[in-house]
Design a protein that fits this description.
Layout (H helix, E strand, L loop, with lengths): L12 H16 L3 E2 L5 E3 H7 L2 H4 L3 E4 L5 E4 L4 H9 L8 E10 L8 E10 L4 H18 L6 E6 H10 L4 H9 L4 H13 L9 H7 L4 H14 L4 E2 L2 E2 H15 L6 H11 L2 E2 L1 H15 L4 H16 L7 E4 L12 E6 L10 E5 L3 H4 L8 E7 H6 L4
Helix pairs in contact: 5-14, 9-11, 10-11, 13-14
Length: 385
């Protein structure tokens, strides 16, 4: 196939061949090859991906009025195909190679990614370690033998917030905003200051919603937005805007966060180092604060052990409790592998655990899931071999 007829004309034949060889290796490792549709329903991405992806999607409206998009990533399309298959709920792994589409200021909107997704494995620590090891195999495949390994763990932050004495609405908000650092900082400021500071101009509407029946309040806000002719704002549907109004009402009615609890959150977010030293710091924090994050921390330490068993030098891993990836669906391990020779070029491989995504896509029961994405064109731009 020549460059003109190739579906990836920006890549030379050698780069296309190396990408194919990488995914063939995933197939040999037991991951079934999958080719999800390029055109996808927009709603799952708008609801579940996060603000950054939402604002860079390419959307269109079908003749029946439904909103569609060019897939901005591979995780949700593969997850949807898995749920529609006879294997749904069973342990099954998939790999894929194909274009994704996002607006980018510094690159083409269409770019090639490889992906690996693992569903249904209950041995989460081992599955996490395998996924990170597969990512390291990808960097080695392209000649980057010692990438920078950055990891975090959303489950640890969620465990901390669950242990704090906070209203449920604030717990949900803090966990949701963990991937958006400026929002998280604003949340903490607002909790410490309380709700008597600067209020939005629509505070009367929020006050009216406070304590109202949730279904009735949701219907009221949806009707008001529809009457005003508002269909969507910033990629959000009318239903999602209504949910935000109700959330703001609940947050405004909540009490202040004691300064010592904010200090505890900030101490947690300052923990970093290799996984073993970070685990010691986390256990010290939990002991000093008098609460437990044991299940999440046990999984974290077990994962470190599985990585060491796979031959990964865990002393090279940079762990930070504040590290996240900007996708709302991550619920545990998150990681990025970058080229030390080009630290600002973006991750070469990235991924993490997303146990909550499948139920949000319609699964009747939770299904463990973890995956990774390989930025093929970034490798091709700086191939070491």
């Amino acid at each position: 196939m020549d460059a003109q007829s190739s579906p990836f004309p920006s890549l030379d034949p050698d780069a296309r061949g190396r990408a194919g060889a990488l995914v063939a290796g995933y197939e040999r490792a037991g991951y079934r090859r999958l080719t999800p549709a390029v055109l996808q329903p927009a709603e799952p991405f708008l609801d579940l991906s996060g603000e950054d992806i939402r604002m860079r999607m390419y959307t269109t409206t079908a003749p029946d009025g439904s909103e569609c998009c060019l897939r901005p990533d591979l995780t949700i399309p593969v997850s949807r195909d898995y749920l529609a298959s006879p294997d749904a709920g069973k342990a099954q792994g998939y790999c894929c190679l194909g274009p994704v589409f996002r607006h980018r200021d510094n690159g083409p909107a269409e770019f090639l990614q490889a992906g690996v997704e693992s569903f249904g494995r209950t041995d989460k620590a081992a599955a996490d370690a395998e996924m990170l090891a597969l990512g390291l195999e990808a960097t080695a495949h392209y000649g980057v033998t010692a990438p920078v390994i950055q990891i975090g763990d959303v489950a640890l932050f969620a465990a901390l917030i669950a242990a704090l004495d906070l209203p449920p609405a604030w717990k949900r908000r803090l966990i949701k905003d963990f991937n958006r650092k400026s929002n998280l900082a604003q949340d903490l400021d607002r909790l410490v200051i309380g709700s008597n500071g600067n209020q939005p101009d629509y505070r009367g509407v929020l006050a009216a919603l406070s304590g109202a029946d949730p279904k009735g309040a949701h219907a009221l806000v949806t009707d008001l937005l529809s009457i005003a002719g508002i269909n969507a704002v910033g990629g959000r549907s009318v239903a999602e805007i209504a949910e935000r109004f109700l959330e703001q009402s609940a947050l405004g009615a909540s009490s202040k966060l004691p300064r010592e609890q904010r200090a505890m959150i900030e101490r947690f977010l300052s923990i970093s180092g290799d996984p073993d030293s970070a685990a010691a710091q986390l256990r010290a924090l939990a002991s000093d604060a008098g609460f437990t994050v044991t299940p999440a921390l046990d999984l974290f330490e077990s994962r470190t052990g599985f990585l060491a068993a796979r031959g990964v030098d865990v002393s090279r891993i940079r762990f930070s409790t504040a590290f996240s990836r900007g996708f709302d669906y991550y619920s545990g391990l998150v990681f990025e592998l970058t080229d030390p020779a080009a630290p600002d070029a973006g991750p070469l491989v990235a991924g993490g655990r997303y146990d909550d995504l499948l139920t949000r896509l319609g699964a009747p029961a939770p299904i463990p899931a973890v995956g990774l994405a390989v930025w093929v064109e970034r490798f091709a731009a700086g191939d070491r071999t």
